[in-house]
Amino acid sequence: MKKDLTIGFFGRLFCFLAWISISSEANAKIATIGFQAISKPTVTDSILEDLQNKIRIWSTDSSVTQRRVANHRFVQNLGRLIRSDHSREFPWSELYPVSVLNSPDGRWKILTWSVLLEQNARRHYGCLFDSEGRLYPLLDQQANRFEVDTVYDGQQWPGAVYFEILPIIASHDGLPCYAVIGYDAREPFSQRKVVDWICPDTTQNQVLVGAPLIRMGPKTQTRLQLVYPLDVRVQMNWDNDQGLIYFDHLINRGLDPSSAAFDFIPDGSFDGLVWENGSLVFKEIPNYQPSR
Q1: What three-state secondary structure class fits 74?
Q2: 171-230 pLDDT tens trace
Q3: Within 10 Å of residue 181's Cβ, how many Cβ atoms?
Q4: Vertex 242 angle, CA 234 and 282, to 5°
Q5: How far is CA 155 from its chain centroid?
Q6: Kind of pairing, strands 219-221 and 214-216?
Q7: Which 8-state DSSP code applies to residue 16?
Q8: pTM
Q9: Residue 109 Cα to chain centre, angstroms
Q10: What is the DSSP string of 85-102?
Q11: How far, in Å, CA of 137 to CA of 131, rounded?
Q12: HSE-CB for 272 with a 13 A CA cutoff
């Protein structure tokens, strides 16, 4: 009887040790598989992390100097990335708050962003590039008056952060022109939304901003802009179902004569730019209601 108990004890012990061995081997295999599944950081991952760190500084740091330095280095590293082979697989959408728009023909990317400088003023930065490594910078000239009848080159860019690109391609002087909608908060007391055109010219290695493709009754404009106070919200977006850009109709609030140039507020109705015959044509749409 004692012998049987001894055999039973050692039998159970053997089974227990065997279970531990099998379990340990299985866990080791699972750990190995898990380790293999977690790949080492790639060059693209490192580039993304570096750019995101610089974005964090120029978008949140309290020091104007630090924001300037971080943005300057961001621009330098961004240029290197665009000209490298890593740009094709780079996750551009992860550079928020940098706006990244793809042209409707898939040829170009348009990057724009703004950095807060001293006295609550913002400066815009941007570029246009394609898969062949052509890179056209957009240089914000803060002295520009943003004339609605002027075509600028990229060196005299009337800056804005473009948040939407229309699914249309116009043409002017043989160049493809992409319509974009942007937002500008450079001034300490006013802001603006704008419809503009981005027209890359590969023969001259430049980008033109603005095109006489907006018809406002008998007049033709190169861009449309709405200027309004900081405490006012104005809508301007593309309605793909109806093929138009809708925007608030603004009226003068008349509170302060010193702000008469921008003291406009929505009156509840909408105007629109309708895509017709290769141009954006102004039309009143008072009964329009945005779907979003």
Answers
A1: helix
A2: 999 999 999 999 998 777 889 999 999 999 999 999 999 999 999 999 999 999 999 998
A3: 22
A4: 60
A5: 20
A6: antiparallel
A7: H
A8: 0.83
A9: 10
A10: GGGTT--GGGGTTSEEEE
A11: 15
A12: 19
